[in-house]
Amino acid sequence: MRLNPLKHHDKPIINGWLAIPSGYSAEIVGHQGYDAVTVDLQHGMIGFSDALTMLQALSSTPAIPLARVPHNDPAQIMRLLDAGAYGIICPMISNAEQARRFVAACRYPPLGNRSFGPARGLLYGGKDYPQHANQQILTLAMIETQEGLENLEEIIAVDGLDGIFIGPNDLSLVLTGSAAAESQHPQMLAAVERVLTQTRAAGKIAGIFCTSGRAAAERIAQGFHFVTPANDVMQLIQAGREAVAHARGEALPARSGSGY
Ligand code: 3PY
Ligand code: MG
C-alpha cells in the first residue's frame, strides 16, 4: 500500500483546504507544494460527487488527499475513505466517546467498525490497501467547542487518534463571542497554548486552521505540526482584493478576523 507520509512526519505538514467544488481547482492546489490537501464537506460547498472528483484530481498530484466531514457520521466517513481520502478531519469532537466513535469509523475490524468496500482506496492506495489501511489512514479530531476543551485530556488519549486540529473560528466564537482565527483574546491564547502543549506531550499531531501563510508560519514557530494557511476561498478573496486595490492604486481593504 502507498504509505501515508503524514503518519511519520518529521517536518511541519502544510495542508491546503478546498471549499470550492471543482476538480480543476483541486488539481491546481494539489500542485502548489502542499504536503496534504483537505476537501471540506463541512463548510465547503461540496457534496459527495464533487468530493469524489476532487479526490481523483488530488490523486494526480503529490499532495496527500484528506477530507473534513460535516459531522461525526460513520456512513459519511466510510464513503470518503472508500473514495480515496487518506485521512479524515472530524469537526466538533467534544468528548472521548465521540472521539472513539470517530476513530472506529476509520478502522476496519477488529480495531473499528468500518464496513468493507475499499473502492478507490485500492486504486489510490494499492491492492493491499485492506491489509494496511488501519495503519495508514490519518485521524484528526477538531477541538472547537467549550466541552471539547474541557475534555481535552481524555480526547487526546483515545487510542488510534493521530492528533488534534483546532478550529479557531468556532473556538474563539464560544470563548470570546466572535469568530477570529488569530484572536489575541487572553482566553483564546491560553486555550490554544493548552491544546498545543497537551497534544505535543501525548506525542500526537497538533494542528490548527490559519487565515494566511504568515499566520501559519507563526503557528509553526509556536510548535504546531500541521497548519492550514487559509482555504481556497480566502486566498481567492485576498488575491482579488489585492489585484483590484493595486489596479486602482488604493490601499488594501482590511481583512476580517475570520479570514472571510
Ligand atoms: C474553525 O476555525 O472553526 C474551523 O472549523 C476551520 O475551518
Ligand atoms: Mg469550525
Distance between the termini: 38 Å
Low-confidence stretches: none
Oligomer: single chain
Q: Radius of gyration in whole Å, from Cα?
A: 18 Å
The secondary-structure class comes to alpha/beta
Order of strands, main sheet, comes to 1-2-3-4-5-6-7-8
Biggest sheet: strands, sense, closure?
8 strands, parallel, barrel
What is the total domain count? 1
Strand content: 15-25%
The CATH superfamily is identified as Phosphoenolpyruvate-binding domains
Count the E strands: 8
Give the second-level CATH assignment, the architecture. Answer: Alpha-Beta Barrel
Q: Taking all residues together, what is the mean pLDDT?
A: 97
CATH class: Alpha Beta
Stated plainly, the CATH topology is called: TIM Barrel
The 3D shape can be described as globular
SSE topology string = EHEHEHEHHHEHHEHHEHEH
Structure description:
- By secondary structure, the protein is α/β, with parallel strands linked by helices.
- It contains 12 helices and 8 strands.
- Strands 1-2-3-4-5-6-7-8 form an 8-stranded parallel β-barrel, surrounded by 6 helices.
- α3 links the parallel β3 and β4.
- Magnesium ion binds next to α9.
- The site of magnesium ion has 5 residues, from α9.
